[in-house]
Design brief:
CATH topology of the domain at 184-360: Phosphomannose Isomerase, domain 2
Low-confidence stretches: 1-46
Number of helices: 14
CATH class of the domain at 184-360: Mainly Alpha
Largest sheet: 9 strands, antiparallel
CATH superfamily of the domain at 184-360: Phosphomannose Isomerase, domain 2
Helix content: 25-40%
Structural class: alpha+beta
Radius of gyration: 24 Å
Shape: globular
Distance between the termini: 38 Å
Length: about 450
């Protein structure tokens, strides 16, 4: 048996990382190796290391600026002269922006492939999803509205990727869940039949673009007729609105803005009316300003979550959240964006369900830890709020996890760690399958962490 120092050094070399750096390596790793059927060397007696990661920042136009963006703060990037928007922090293996090992700069995706995914991701996960993480973990800082959009189901994703790979860059579906970190606002799903009738009665600019025939059908629809007829009428009306000419839309938005500004002097505008005026300031003459009347206006408090399934319309409006999804970047857009719009695809793919979205508040799984479990098998999210001086042990799971320290400081302990495991705001860790992790909060305030992992139901 080699000494612990020699074993650690050899493991570091085997991992292809010069020096120990930010890598958390076991102190008692044996050097005995075996070879898998795929030819990957595995350390038979060694615990697989917990890795410090660097996430990838995305600078989309709707993101917050450096001084006000949670993404910028967590990434530790930028300087006083940096005017770029900091929109998203990606943590995962999606090839568009994979995370990298903090110690070496090697992408996590490449490292997993080189080391053998079965041992690190768990046999069931590797058998189902191959060498990639099945989930993509993000932080979003939304300073202005994102596009009106939907994500394709698996079959449509494959078709779109085959047809237009430059636009739809992978062939996977993208169910997603957002957990609010601050007050968070969104549009999500179509409003009820009754609310839609109220829109057609009180918003002449929308009624005009929908068309008289479709408006009459919707006004005569019953709330509880099984929904088949209503969905057909809704699809026709919404498609008419979204495909109206640019000139017609521009005139309608101008009329709406003028009318609401006048009426605001004699009455209090509704929250939806105030919203559309705000959207018009962000995206002048955009059809999305009018389309907002069709969607539920949702506000999440910190700790509340929203799940969005395939082919459901939505648009994030403001606030900051952690988001987890299947590993995909497929987005079909149709409004409130300078990016490519695929209006016909969006209008044809939507479910046209008229339900207010369920607000998820999570389930306590132990002291200080709340779990959000969506219907999708690829992911779940844990939220840990740990008071200073307290600790919590996250039991081993048969799949991989990514931990993010949102606020506070403390330590992360695991059998496979060599350094002190100091953890502070913005630190990101990859935790292999079957690894127990203990978290201790030691700073002056509480420690807030989030864990993304494979949905527990997948293993049951």
């Amino acid at each position: 048996m080699a000494s612990s120092t020699t074993a650690s050094s050899q493991l570091a070399l085997a991992l292809g990382i010069p020096g120990l750096g930010g890598l958390l390596i076991p102190t008692d790793a044996a050097t005995t190796t075996t070879t898998t059927a795929e030819g990957n060397d595995l350390h038979a007696d060694a615990s697989h290391p917990v890795l410090r990661l660097a996430g990838a920042v995305q600078h989309y136009e709707w993101g917050g600026r450096r001084g006000s963006s949670l993404v910028a703060r967590l990434a530790g990037e930028g300087d006083d002269g940096d005017e770029r928007p900091y929109a998203e922090l990606w943590m995962g293996t999606h090839p568009a922006a994979p995370s990298s090992l903090a110690a070496s700069g090697e992408s996590l995706r490449e490292w997993l492939g080189r080391r053998g995914p079965a041992a690190l991701l768990g046999r069931d996960v590797a058998a189902r999803w191959g060498g990639d993480l099945p989930f993509l973990f993000k932080v979003l800082s939304v300073a202005r509205a994102l596009s009106i959009q939907a994500h394709p189901d698996a079959a449509l994703a494959r078709a779109l990727h085959a047809l237009r790979p430059a636009t739809y860059r992978d062939d996977n579906h993208k169910p997603e869940m957002a957990v609010a970190v601050t007050d968070f606002r969104a549009l999500c799903g179509f409003v009820s039949v009754q609310e839609l009738k109220d829109v057609l009665r009180t918003v002449p600019e929308v009624r005009e673009l929908v068309g008289k025939e479709e408006a009459v059908k919707l006004m005569g629809a019953k709330e509880h007729d099984g929904g088949i007829g209503v969905r057909s009428y809704l699809q026709s009306a919404f498609t008419n609105l979204m495909t109206a000419s640019k000139e017609t839309v521009s005139e309608a938005v101008s009329k709406l803005k003028s009318r609401l500004n006048i009426e605001s002097k004699v009455r209090t505008l509704t929250k939806k009316e105030q919203l559309v005026l705000s959207l018009e300031m962000q995206y002048p003459e955009d059809v999305g300003v009018l389309a907002a009347f069709f969607f539920n206006y949702v506000k999440l408090n910190p700790g509340e979550a929203l799940y969005i399934g395939a082919n459901e319309p939505h648009a994030y409006l403001s606030g900051e959240c952690v988001e987890c999804m299947a590993t995909s970047d497929n987005v079909v857009r149709a409004g409130l964006t300078p990016k490519y719009r695929d209006v016909q695809t969006l209008c044809s793919m939507l479910t046209y369900k008229q339900n207010y979205p369920e607000i998820l508040r999570g389930v306590p799984v132990q002291a200080y830890v709340t779990r959000y479990i969506p219907p999708s098998e690829e992911f779940e999210v844990d939220r840990c709020l740990l008071p200073s001086g307290e600790s919590v042990t996250m039991s081993p799971v048969p799949g991989p996890s990514i931990f993010l320290v949102m606020t506070g400081e403390g330590k992360i302990e695991a059998d496979s760690m060599l350094d002190e495991g100091k953890a502070k705001e913005g630190d990101v860790f990859f935790v292999p399958a079957h690894t127990e992790v203990r978290i201790l909060a030691s700073g002056p305030g509480s420690m807030q962490l989030y864990r993304a992992g494979v949905n527990s139901r997948f293993f049951s």
